[in-house]
Write a structure and sequence with these properties.
single chain; alpha/beta; Rossmann fold; 2 domains; 7-stranded parallel β-sheet; 4-stranded mixed β-sheet; 15 helices
Amino acid sequence: MSAKNKVVYILGAGFSKSAGAPLQSEIIRDIFSLTIDDIERDIHYNNDGLKELFLDCKNNFEYILKNLFFIAPKHYKYLSLEDIYSSIDKSILSNLSLRNISKKDLHDIRQKINALIIILMKIKLPDNARKKHIRKFANYLVEERSKDIDEDPFTIISTNWDIILENALRMEMDTNKGDIDYCFYTHSFRESNRGEKLRSGLYNRGLGKYNLKILKLHGSMNWLQCQRCQRVYITYFDKIALEQFLTKPAPTCIHCTNNYLNEDNSFQGAYLNSVLIMPTFLKDLNNFNLKLTWQIAGIELQEASKIVFMGYSLPLADFELRHLLASSIRSDAEIEVVLHRNDKPKIHDYKNFPAFRYRSFLGKRKIKFYYDGVEGYINDLIT
């Protein structure tokens, strides 16, 4: 299959929802539904440390909901994360306090909300890569990509932070023949992972392996980035973004530590932070590796003869991605949109459904809508 027949799969929250992840609109509700018992069932981290972090972050989050947004507990679930993050981000960017909360405290509160979301995803998605339809899709992708390593049949573009698909792909593939490629240079967070060093896609291509491209536009929960050299450390089967908040002292870049070992303040700026773009109208996409990811995503969309949106409703708030799609998708590209049955439009309320947004945005392009959900689409695709 040549580039002119390339398929680009664009994964939205509905893709992960099919494996048990919460939608953005459900995150606040689910955070306040978490209990200490849920935390204690996690076996990968020190429970006391995780419980302490969870309770501290949850108390701070509840404080701003009550005292900044004046929301009663029973109405927490109705507040949009975008409203919270956008209000905080606007104050930070303007160098202003938000009511009685200083800019410095806003930074701290923002980090605590980030930590809560990561904890939620960690608890909700312990082993969801084993979902039957996710494994089926992963197996299909591996088989398609491994047919001819010199061809470039498809690319995955994801707006999700979770690592459901990556983990399923790693279960299905022979990593001696190919591996996942985030399309920038990566380093192994731990020296080895499952007995092997984790190498970048370019490195593996140099060894004659195939690369399976996944472009994560909003970052990923298995990435940590050095704040000094911008190296990105990765692993699989573990949401290491939590390490920034849980590990004391915070994890540091081993390369910067070695390179500046004999200098004073060798750790200055070399701490590893998560790479997650949160739901806000003021997204900061200036991160070097994310800028590269978005640039490559544009190229992949330009080359695609077919684009499959899986569980993505094309919300108006995603204006950065809408701009990328508008500037990159070919006029003759075939479009398939995979949605849930609840998204099937009603005639009297058509403008409030995703189908209206797609048709008005993509114009005369051919669009096929599927309303059997991600799982139904995958089962139909792979017979």
